[in-house]
Amino acid sequence: xxxxxxxxxxxxxxxxxxxxxxxxxxxxxxxxxxxxxxxxxxxxxxxxxxxxxxxxxxxxxxxx
Length: 64
Description:
Layout: E1 5-7, H1 8-15, H2 19-28, E2 34-36, E3 39-43, H3 44-63
Antiparallel strand pairs: 1-3, 2-3
């Protein structure tokens, strides 16, 4: 199974967030990310899992 590696700009567009928001998420460890040669990289599959978790977390909060 090959994981797709996304650049910062690709991840920003994929998540539909601003540059500042994605940078904050990456530096605070909110979203799965890592630096490779000084540049942020994101694995699409891990972002998808993270998004699924966000969806589930928000659904649980609404049910309370």
